[in-house]
């Protein structure tokens, strides 16, 4: 895993991205952590209304969208999102890395 690359930082959110090397059956890809400190609850409520977002069993106030690899967790007023983008192919398709994102989301909510 590379050192984090700072991403967009605003008064309402901050993000960082890491490059991740291939391991086992998972190809190389990226992981982005995003913390929304303003409007997190409203954003979570909006995502919960979209059918592509599903709660994750055992992870309170969480929503996962498999097609984008985004796992969002409402932590108080903050919305913490960890997104893993790992592609394989041809044909190009996303690799589902939810099991790897859950511990990262738990860690990110502790640090948010």
Please give a structural write-up.
- This protein is an alpha+beta fold and 112 residues long.
- The protein has one domain (5-20, 28-111).
- The protein has 2 helices and 7 strands, in the order E-E-E-H-E-E-E-E-H.
- It has helices at residues 40-48, 98-111, and strands at residues 5-9, 13-20, 29-36, 62-65, 70-75, 78-88, 93-94.
- Strand 5 and strand 6 form a beta hairpin.
- The longest helix has 14 residues, at 98-111.
- The chain is globular.
Supply the number of structural domains. Answer: 1
Mean pLDDT: 94
Helix content: 10-25%
- Sketch the topology as an H/E string, one letter per element: EEEHEEEEH
Cα separation of the termini? 20 Å
* Major beta sheet summary: 7 strands, antiparallel
Distinct helical segment count: 2
Strand content: 35-45%
Return the structural class.
alpha+beta
Number of strands: 7
Radius of gyration: 14 Å
Uncertain spans, ≥5 residues at pLDDT below 50? none
General shape: globular
Provide a quick synopsis of the model.
This protein is α+β, with helices and mostly antiparallel strands.
Question: What is the fold's blueprint, element by element?
Answer:
Blueprint: E1 5-9, E2 13-20, E3 29-36, H1 40-48, E4 62-65, E5 70-75, E6 78-88, E7 93-94, H2 98-111
Antiparallel strand pairs: 1-2, 2-3, 3-6, 4-5, 5-6, 6-7
Quick tags:
7 strands, alpha+beta, seven-stranded antiparallel sheet, single chain, 112 residues, globular
């Amino acid at each position: 895993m590379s050192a984090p690359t700072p991403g967009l930082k605003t008064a309402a959110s901050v993000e960082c991205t890491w490059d991740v090397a291939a391991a086992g059956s998972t190809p190389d890809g990226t992981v982005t952590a995003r913390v929304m400190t303003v409007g997190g609850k409203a954003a979570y409520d909006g995502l919960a209304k979209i059918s592509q977002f599903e709660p994750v069993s055992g992870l309170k106030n969480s929503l996962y969208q498999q097609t984008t690899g985004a796992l969002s967790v409402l932590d108080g007023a903050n919305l913490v999102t960890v997104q893993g983008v790992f592609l394989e192919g041809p044909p190009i398709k996303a690799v589902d890395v939810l099991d790897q994102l859950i511990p990262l989301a738990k860690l990110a909510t502790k640090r948010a």
